[in-house]
Specification:
Keywords: Membrane, Transmembrane, Transmembrane helix. This protein has about 625 residues and is α+β, with helices and mostly antiparallel strands. The protein has 13 helices and 23 strands.
Length: about 625
Amino acid sequence: MKRIMYSGAGLLVLLLAFFAFNMATGVLLPGARLDLTEQKLYTLSDGTREILQELEEPIDLYFFFSEGASKDLVVLRNYQRRVAEMLKEYERRADGMIRLHIIDPEPFSEAEDRAAEFGLQAIPLSESGDSLYFGLAGTNELAQREIIPFFALEQENMLEYELSRLVSTLAKPDKPQVGLISGLPVDGGMNPYSQQPQAPWVALEQMRQVFEVKTLAEDVDAIPEDIQVLLLIHPKALSEAALYAVDQFVLRGGKLLAFVDPFAEADQGMEAMIEGMADGKASDLGPLLQAWGVAYNPERVVVDARQGMAVGRGQGQRPARHIGWLEVEPAQINREDTITAPLQLLTVATGGALVPVEGSQTEFTPLLQSTADSALVPSERFTKLQDPEELLQGFAPDAEVYTLAARLSGPAASAFPNGMEGREPGLKQADNINVVLVADTDMLTDRMWVQVQDLFGQRISQPWADNGGLLVNALDNLSGSDALISVRSRGDFSRPFTVVEELQRKAESRFRASEQRLQERLAETDQKLAQLQQRQDPTQLSELTAEQRETIQSFLDEKVAIRKQLRDVRFQLNADIDALGTQLKLLNTMLMPLLLTLAVLLWWLLGRARRKG
């Protein structure tokens, strides 16, 4: 048997068996695969499978990709294969409820005309007029259409969400009704400073893809019955009648998502500009929060040295740590609530603190929190802030963990127990309310979570934080749709270097301490020079006394020494990072060969022991 296996005929038999095995698995198990990524990036989520299983009427998907025009675009063709494979997986999982059509829209063909008719985006590739189609169109039995104009490489991590959103929209064409009251220009408009038109916020554009948004006035006296979720963004000008309307809406079972802020940096209204004070940029819900068992001070901002964001100061200057702009990472994100569980990074700018009132019947569930290395500071400190590191002067954490966003549920009483004069008696309490509060509004602005680019007249947004996901997740959850939540924010293809970031934070701390010592020494020396100066022109070194020259020389020596310390700190930072990189390289290059060698050695020893036995 051994002679046969080691002969040429034996090797040929093994080769044929290998090909036969591959052909059999390709026919019998065409969709079988093993996803070994940590966050299962290549496996359809439970939410997607739920959407596909609930399809009641057939949906047609038309995937357009220009094969000829893309023949030299290797990266794009690889992405096309991934999109096509995922669409085939959708078709297979839908049990006949999805009909997939893969189409190559060749130039001057009927297929190209159909792609243009759907409204897909054609990207020009050369001066000869060649163009590339890479998009998706879907239709349902009611002839309604939904499209993805172009699959941008920058949004590869949003692929499954975009496909599931399209299918879900076609399956349930009636979008949930969301009522919007906002004191900020979320829908664009004219910039009062530059007098230039502004585009709508990306968060609002994404929200409109899933929901029917109806804008309501700030003095509304009743919330329409068809509104399922009420969204408040910076409600600083709500009248008492409007507050009563919100109160009654929540008590009768309506869902509320409210973004309030002690210092809304995006507030460019006339009130804030004229006053120039922090309270001109603050918003609150007054008696409503008290009735729901929440304490909130609209004059205090949460600062956190641990979560402070690194912000640029301009060319040639090192970044500054802004402890009023926070990067909330998984350790401070509620991993059990369906709204925040899929989220990885959220940014908050000059946000406030939500505190549960002791003895309240309403359940208070934190969603986002600060670390214990935080404190509350007056919001007026941010009105004329020039250098973010000014916030570090005199900073002392109070060891409290502050809640930046929370869910409220359970029993609640009306904030207007006596009703309103001239109105019919309203509800006085409810057995269960469903409210989500966020103590920041700037997190919804584009600059805090997304990079927007113009691609041939089309706005392409590339998120770098999950702020938009928080908004849509919350609205999905409050409107009763949970299926899409697990699809969104399924993980990033690029992982952050958390250990390197920690090394940088520690080095920055040492660097800042050394820099402060240098500045203190400068101030002290300037004071000594002022005391010793005897003439009007201190630049004439020849007229300085020996004591003055000695002081100056001492300062110069000290300055050189401290600069050397700063260089040592920077060198130590790089040395720590380089050492970590070396360890990882050794681990990656030597671990697998070592394991294989040990496995072969173990196999040989076991075989030898068997033969001796």
